[in-house]
Design a protein that fits this description.
Blueprint lengths: L8 E9 L2 E8 L4 E5 L2 H14 L3
Antiparallel strand pairs: 1-2, 2-3
């Protein structure tokens, strides 16, 4: 089983177009802010942030 990874993220959804979210996500632990154009991109950003924390 994979190790448990934790992080605090603040998600601000600006709008919903084409049946998905657009907005900004802030990684609170590092005070990094990124924009996303879809819910899938949001999940990808969070996944990459948690996996980058191991390295």
């Amino acid at each position: 089983m994979a190790d448990k990874k934790e992080g605090t993220f603040v998600v601000h959804v600006n709008k919903c177009e084409n049946d998905t979210w657009q907005g900004q996500v802030t990684w609170a632990d590092r005070d990094e802010k990124l924009s996303f154009r879809s819910a899938m991109e949001l999940m990808s950003i969070i996944d990459a942030a948690l996996n980058a924390d191991e390295e």
